[in-house]
Design brief:
Among the domains are: 132 residues, no CATH class; 71 residues, 2-Layer Sandwich (Alpha-Beta Plaits). The two termini are 38 Å apart. 42% of the residues lie in helices and 20% in strands. It is built from eight helices and 13 strands. The protein is flat.
Length: 313
Amino acid sequence: MQLETYISDLLYRYDCVTVPEFGAFLTHRVSAKIHDTTHAFYPPKKALSFNEQLQNNDGLLANYIADVEKVPYEVAVEKVAKQVKSIKSYLVEGETIAFKNIGELLLNKEGKINFEPSLHINYLTDAFGLSQFTSQNITREVYKEEVKAIEEVIPLVVTPEKRKSRSYLKYAAIALVALTIGGFAASNYYVNQIETHNQLAQEEANQQLEHKVQEATFVIDNPLPAATLSVEQKQTGNYHIVAGAFRMEANSDKKVNQLRTQGYKARKIGANKYGLHEVVYASYSDRLEALQALRQIKHEHNRDAWLLVKALD
């Protein structure tokens, strides 16, 4: 029995997954952040930790195993206990236990379990499809500060005597203002002329297109025979096995076509609150049937597939 597979499945939906007589894996939400030095963007995530003190059986893990493997609850509890006993024996011998997509566990000198979480997976389903990226630092030229710095070094002082001898500066300033106003007026007039021209050209093109469509005549010499179409029954249910989420809708269409050629009843279920288009293998009304299908898909096709519980409009 691959215990880490069941723990990983439950971490997507629950904040605490307890392994009886061993410890509990806990998650807490961490907001998105930007590193001040590297300018790297980190999406929101669920940070994973381990608490050796929480060992009481809350029934979550055993019930999930019993549902998936179709065994009685007591049998599932015995399987977990047997797996825990084996793990503890390896830890005592000084070995490191690696749980795939969860992390590594080992005993320290005090006999306590140290846990190093895996950084290869994000259990926050709301952030599905978001990844880390680094942006270039934005530099801005602040001319105002440069001018202030220059004025502090070389102050401009004009005495009354110099003002009298430089009366032509007043007229030059007036001329400069007039030229500036004239330039703005000419620029606005030119922009308005361009916009008017573009609008008239667009209207003329639309009229020509409409005229050609009205005059067009369509003659079909050899009509095609009537075709019988089989309408695929619409899938229902609140349990969806997610194959992926894509920012570009065209990519989600490609994924649907790819999965359908492989025999899955794939479809799109719309965009989530992050604007990502979600593609599912199939939807189910029965929870146990969905869990069985998810386990088969994770084993045969996609280890990263996960179960979304959501009522669609």
